[in-house]
């Protein structure tokens, strides 16, 4: 916090930030500064031509997959996930409906009981 | 009266379609399911978006079982709320927003139980990886790099690189300033592509 946060960090500080060596004031500044976002984009492009900006930069480099393919692989779902999810969601929804019925039945039962008992509460 | 009402309710529950209230009217014949099973509309929704929802949840919580719980919760909420979806955003980004909320409340509950980043290795869907990304060691290295990112950066990189959401949508969904999205993405891409070099 304070005025330090609004001073744009040096190129060296930005370079360190890109490498994951962030200090708190730089980190806080970069989170909201459009100008430093643009500076970082330029810096990243200079030090790693094509590597940081283009999504498919690694596509076709040796056997390296693109970033998207790698992310999909790293976060891949089990093959039976969708079948399980469909069943679970369906069952949960059915349960919710049964709960409605029970609430109705209990609520209705109480109403009936009150009627039979000639519930005098409301008479004051 | 009450008995008739109860019978009607029970009939509604036992009816095979299992479609949430309000959906039945506009539903086509194709939406009807085999007796007792999930309706075809629900199957279609899960087939189309289930994997993306799980993947995004996994990027946040890094634990496959928890990610599946979140996906289940998000899809249940989405399925019930679907009649009120107005199409102001894409269905995918609406679902991811619901997933985000589900994951955040799950994290709040589970924050105390520290999840070991290494849990994700070998326990996710890595066995189903095909083609160019079959190198298991390289995949493990990439997963470590992904786990090393902060939670916000992981979300941003998945929403942008895999889901193709615009920066503005990501910023609104995660409630962070636009430069945060841009710069975290820049740094995350850099760190992840470095980890990808092991694939060569
Ligand atoms: Zn600045």
Structural summary, described in words:
The complex is a heterodimer of chains A (124) and B (200). Chain A is mostly helical. Helices cover 60% and strands 0% of the residues of chain A. Chain A has two domains: 11-74, no CATH class; 81-123. In chain A, helix 1 packs across helix 3. In chain B, helix 2 (40-61) crosses helix 3 (64-81). The longest helix of chain B has 22 residues, at 40-61. Chain B is globular and about 50 Å long. The complex binds zinc ion.
Essential attributes:
heterodimer; A: 124 residues; mainly alpha; 2 domains; 5 helices; 60% helix; 0% strand; elongated; B: 200 residues; Rna Polymerase Sigma Factor, Chain: A; Arc Repressor Mutant, subunit A; 8 helices; 62% helix; globular; disordered N terminus; binds zinc ion
What is the number of domains of chain A? 2
Low-confidence stretches of chain B: 1-32, 120-131
Uncertain spans of chain A: 49-63, 120-124
Biggest interface, CB < 8 A:
A-B, 61 and 65 residues
Number of strands of chain A: 0
- Fraction of residues in helix of chain A: 55-70%
Distance from N terminus to C terminus of chain B (CA atoms, Å) equals 73 Å
SSE order and pairing:
The complex is a heterodimer of chains A (124) and B (200).
Chain A: H1 11-18, H2 24-30, H3 34-47, H4 67-74, H5 81-117
Chain B: H1 2-14, H2 40-61, H3 64-81, H4 91-110, H5 136-148, H6 151-162, H7 167-174, H8 178-196
Helix pairs in contact in B: 2-3, 2-4, 2-6, 3-4, 5-8, 6-8, 7-8
The structure holds zinc ion.
Provide a short characterization of the protein structure.
With 124 residues, chain A is mainly alpha-helical. Chain A has helices spanning 11-18, 24-30, 34-47, 67-74, 81-117.
């Amino acid at each position: 916090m304070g005025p330090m946060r609004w001073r744009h960090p040096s190129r060296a500080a930005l370079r360190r930030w890109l490498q994951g060596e962030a200090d708190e004031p730089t980190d806080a500044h970069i989170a909201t500064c459009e100008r430093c976002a643009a500076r970082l984009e330029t810096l990243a492009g200079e030090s790693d031509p094509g590597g940081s900006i283009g999504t498919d930069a690694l596509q076709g480099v040796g056997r390296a997959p693109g970033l998207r393919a790698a992310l999909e692989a790293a976060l891949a779902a089990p093959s039976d996930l969708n079948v399980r999810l469909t069943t679970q969601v369906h069952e949960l929804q059915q349960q919710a409906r049964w709960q409605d019925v029970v609430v109705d039945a209990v609520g209705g039962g109480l109403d009936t009981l009150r009627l039979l008992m000639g519930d005098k509460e409301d008479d004051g | 009266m009450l008995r008739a009402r109860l019978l009607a309710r029970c009939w509604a529950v036992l009816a095979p379609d299992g479609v949430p209230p309000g959906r039945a009217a506009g539903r086509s014949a194709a939406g009807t399911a085999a007796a007792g099973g999930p309706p075809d509309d629900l199957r279609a929704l899960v087939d189309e978006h289930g994997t993306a929802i799980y993947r995004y949840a996994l990027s946040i919580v890094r634990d496959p079982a928890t990610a599946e719980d979140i996906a289940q919760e998000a899809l249940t909420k989405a399925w019930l709320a679907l009649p009120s979806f107005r199409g102001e955003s894409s269905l995918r980004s609406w679902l991811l927003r619901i997933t985000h909320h589900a994951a955040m409340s799950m994290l709040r509950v589970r924050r105390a139980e520290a999840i070991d980043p290494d849990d994700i290795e070998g326990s996710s869907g890595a066995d189903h990886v095909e083609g160019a990304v079959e190198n298991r060691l390289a995949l493990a290295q990439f997963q470590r790099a992904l786990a090393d990112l902060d939670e916000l950066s992981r979300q941003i990189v998945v929403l942008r690189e895999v889901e193709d959401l615009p920066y503005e949508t990501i910023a609104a969904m995660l409630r962070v300033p636009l430069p945060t999205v841009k710069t975290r993405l820049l740094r995350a891409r850099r760190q992840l592509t470095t980890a990808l070099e092991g694939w060569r």
